[in-house]
């Protein structure tokens, strides 16, 4: 619907009175090249087949050997995360929240060691939307059924505890149910309401699949859906609509009130300095808890570097305060645990 179209009348949503979600049980352990379609139950036209990304990764050969020793496994895992990372959004100790090559913002780039054999980790499918399209086409060809396919993965949520499943790949179904321009029951036009129905269906399927019972597939029946060729990647907020694209940089002011809990350790400062990309014309030194930034470039670029350094310090559990600007000196202290209270 375009802005010039007449508003849709109130109550025009095509909603079911009920729907069902069926777990597909009794599936085998899948391996590279295995046939998923041959293990699906009897399907009906307009069903929605929901499959975990883990099964797709196994079938598509996205498992990576990480060795047997604990140190070797950890190093291989960190290397894999780095290889899948486009940008680090936040980091606390060894935990990294990153934007991965699919554009998804996830802990550890979505790399997972659960529900896979010992000694391997699972990368996400290389192109989940393409995987969903292939599976849908195979079901149509072999089972003569017109279904939608959703590929899911489990993610954490900012500001809320608990994990949920989201859609990282879709085929057939339109990911968003766009109600913008629709009138509510009081006659007011909805201005921003676009529901992530693919994510909602992914989460509903997890209620019957669970995490520890080896049930990676569910069939959702009774939800009307419109055919579409829109990818799940359309659900990723980006550009000017992403108010938190700077990641940890947005969190730094909220933790400022926790400063003063102790003296920074040299290894914390060194780790923060090492985390900031080198810039020609900028060098640093530190003595005790004070960092000096020596710059031969303009003040704006220097400020950008200092901003990144403040973020890196916070990731190491420190608070940095700019004590002077010419030259730039940053005083560091250990940050107290943030108790959820906003800065006055």
What is the CATH level 1 assignment of the largest domain?
Answer: Alpha Beta
The main sheet orders its strands as 1-12-2-8-9-13
Average of pLDDT: 85
Name the structural class: alpha+beta
In the CATH hierarchy, what is the superfamily of the largest domain? CofE-like
Number of domains: 2
Largest sheet: 6 strands, mixed
Shape: globular
Number of helices: 6
Provide the gyration radius in Å: 24 Å
Strand content: 25-35%
Low-confidence spans: 1-11, 253-259, 338-344
Q: List how many beta strands DSSP finds.
A: 17
- Helix share of residues? 10-25%
Main attributes of the structure:
alpha+beta, disordered C terminus, 60s Ribosomal Protein L30, Chain: A, 2 domains, disordered N terminus, single chain, 23% helix, six-stranded mixed sheet, 344 residues
